[in-house]
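#onboarding

Welcome to the new folks! Below is a worked example of what a typical request in this channel looks like: someone posts a single protein sequence, and someone else replies with the predicted structure as tokens. Don't worry about understanding the tokens yet, we'll cover that in week two.

Example request:
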Amino acid sequence: MKLLKAIAILIFGPLLCSLVAFIVGGLALPPDPKFAANGGHGAPGDGFLILLCLFVSLVVSVPASVAGALWVLFHKPKRPIETS
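Example response:
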């Protein structure tokens, strides 16, 4: 069960952060007044900001997910001290 939890952390951690990065990158784009005039496409270079947000999210989320997965795999819960 620990292995399944670790695999889930390794998959869904960066995936969720990538999704958040795409949303944040899209919201961070400047408004394009010619959006309707140029056929519905964004301005040239808009993808670089989204890719930068994606890169930053992966640089943060992949090591954090690896650390979380290792913690799940190797953490031993503390047992309460039994007193008689």
